[in-house]
Amino acid sequence: MTEPAVHVHNLWKAFGQQLAVAGVDLTLPAGKFIGLVGPNGAGKTTTLSMVTGLLRPDQGTVEVVGHDVWKDPAEVKARIGVLPEGLRLFDRLSGRELLAYTGRLRGLPGTEVDKRATQLLDVLDLAGAQHKLVVDYSTGMRKKIGLAAALLHNPEVLFLDEPFEGVDPVSAQTIRGVLERYTGSGATVVFSSHVMELVESLCDWVAVIAAGRIRAQGPLAEVRGDAATLQEAFLELVGAHGRDAATDLDWLGGGSTR
Amino acid sequence: MTAPAAAPAAPAAAPSLTPVFVRLKLSLLRNGLRQSSGRRAAYVASAVVALLFAALQLLGLILLRGDEHAATVTVILVAVLALGWAVMPLFFPSGDETLDPTRLVMLPLRPRPLVRALLVASLVGIGPLFTLCLALGAVIAVARGGAAVAVGAVAVPLTLLLCVALARAVATANVRLLTSRRGRDLAVLSGLVIAVGAQLVNFGAQRIGSSAEGLGELEPAADVLGWIPPSSALSAVHATGEARYATAAAQLILSFAALLLLLHLWQRSLTRLMTSPDGSTLAAAEPDRRQRGGGLFARLPAGRTGPVMERTLRYVWRDPKTKAAWVTSLAIGLIVPVFNALQDTGSVYFACFAAGMLGIQMYNQFGQDTSAFWMVAMTVASTRDAYEELRARALALLVITLPYAALVTVLTTALLGEWHALPETLGLSFALLGAMLATGAWSSARYPYSIPQQGHKNVAPGQAGLAWISIFGGMLAAAVLCAPVLALTIWLHTAGHGSWTWLLLPVGTLYGVAVTGAGLRIAAPRVARRLPEILAAVSKG
Ligand SMILES: Nc1ncnc2c1ncn2[C@@H]1O[C@H](COP(=O)(O)OP(=O)(O)OP(=O)(O)O)[C@@H](O)[C@H]1O
Ligand SMILES: [Mg+2]
């Protein structure tokens, strides 16, 4: 086997008292569609931020395509594309200006940037809004322009934090198409999500994270194990199986005021 | 010619529309007040204050009658009032729902009767009543003789209509802007306009207070304003009283023409608005003028420098917070030296204020990016990248600052007539600018803080200390950095080498360049090393 796309060893991060990531070890193979799943607050965003160099870990090492993210940022940053969650874009630029800016910042020649931007805007169905300021985009459109900006320099590894959040089914299908073709050419996509059906239908490799720790990782079939669906296996792994909300919220429903 | 009110355009529908709108306005007002007692109290309180103020104005103006400066004062008052009417819809776009044309789009109304009905409806309210009091008082103050009173009887409604029509025309013309997100950003600038306006008023008052002529100082201004509607209507009353009938007639005709023009413009934009798509979708359909990406920006250097400069300059114009900061700096950088020069209390050295104020924009560079800084962090992989990033930002700043500082310096020198001091002042300005850029780059790297995007605050909670260190520490450091050039200036003057002060221009410029270069080089490794920390610090807004 070739060298892994991402290798994370013993990664820790605490925000004050709150332990967000507690000793994550991950080895993600290259050329795969990889899903990072976990409940809210599991540490997915924190992990991805540390892996992409946007957040400094308290402890641990991260290697992307064989280069240490913190010791060798030049090698890593040129090879990865990122769509973070909860961070803004330069949203006072229009969609096209944003792509032109990012592409040229990445060192691509202007004509090449324009060509790629036009194609990406077309494929992602943003051509009609390309001259609108990103601040006036809808949530889904913002995800899509962020994805375009992340893809522009044809990275080897793409990190996407909840790329399908707020995206309509049609656009989701489009994004899937783009990403599948992209991994088909040997690139790696790592994305986080809570939507198990989506992960199950898209990914060949899954890592389950809960409370800052990896609960399982491996090929989809392996993680799913004997369970009928990934959803079942997931609930089992994060220890939420059998928890019944109905008993706690017995006042909810029926419309009576008491 | 027929006045617009008697236009034969809509024979059957016209009589009914106007009362409908007036009633609509009244019931909206009533319903609004019924909603909550707090709102009612606020409305009543503001109405009482406004009416009291109006009554006092009226009284004051009546007392002013016969004063030699009455004409000057009234003309200026009305001009200020009209200005208020013109800018109000920009800052309080949702003030009057009846007048919001976007709500009328669905109705099958023809523009001409609609304009008439809207005009009449907008005469209902405290604002128009206030204006009426002021116009009435102004006429009483200046009208002398029967003819003047007759003209005044025309001038009062004319002034009122002009004010209201002006507000409506501005509001309608701007409705596309105001219904977009970008337009609401204007609100951020409102505080600023008020601040600068207060400066100007303060300056004017000081001038009037300090000069022997008093109000007479304002006469030239009043002479000009007297020809600008709606002040022209009042000027006509005054002119009639002085038997300058030709002037009076001209000013009156001018006022009428202005009213017709405003109504015409209003009607045109109303028609366009009602027949074209909703404002929120307009931006997407905008012509492809930006596609070229050419013009000025095409000539910017390649590599990181070009795109970063381009983005920075676009943000100066498009980002409300950045724009407000720039406008403040530009305004103060001009007002302080020029006003001081005008008052003869100034010195040429005040011209350095322009460079100093604009240099502040280099501070907290990354805070201005907000959390979008991650896009920069993702592409900065070495000290070299960080250096180029900082240098590009400094260059973008210089594109505006250099010509502006030079202009202010020349202007100040010209006002004071001290041309011999021009080179040294320019040199000092450039040295100061260099020092500001250097310390600004360094403190951007060392003490970044978040600028919240909502509201008027410029520092995120808990980071005020950081902001103070960043800016005031930086400015102090900049002053210290300037010391060598300052010392040279002082030495040249005290040692009697006054004829050599031109040397300060090349020396100051070179010093500024050198100090900037050094500052950027010291700041760059810090930025490259602290990217995640900077991102965390600027993402709190
Ligand atoms: N900047 C921060 N300051 C303090 N605590 C934080 C910060 N960022 C994350 N946390 C905490 O770290 C934990 C992990 O958060 P993280 O955002 O990584 O979760 P996540 O898996 O991405 O969740 P979600 O699915 O809701 O996006 C949470 O408990 C969160 O409260
Ligand atoms: Mg998350």
Automatic annotation (TrEMBL), chain A:
Residues 6-236 form the ABC transporter domain. InterPro entries: AAA+_ATPase, ABC_transporter-like_ATP-bd, ABC_transporter_ATP-binding, P-loop_NTPase. GO terms for molecular function: ATP binding; ATP hydrolysis activity. Its main location: membrane. It is found in: Cell membrane. It comes from the Bacteria. GO terms for biological process: response to antibiotic. It holds the Pfam family ABC_tran. One of its GO terms (cellular component) is plasma membrane. SMART domains: AAA. It is a peripheral membrane protein. Keywords: Antibiotic resistance, ATP-binding, Nucleotide-binding, Transport. This is ABC transporter ATP-binding protein.
From TrEMBL, chain B:
The chain crosses the membrane at residues 41-64, 70-92, 113-141, 147-166, 186-205, 245-266, 324-342, 348-366, 394-416, 428-445, 466-493, 499-520. The keyword Translocase does not apply. This is Transporter. Keywords: Membrane, Transmembrane, Transmembrane helix.
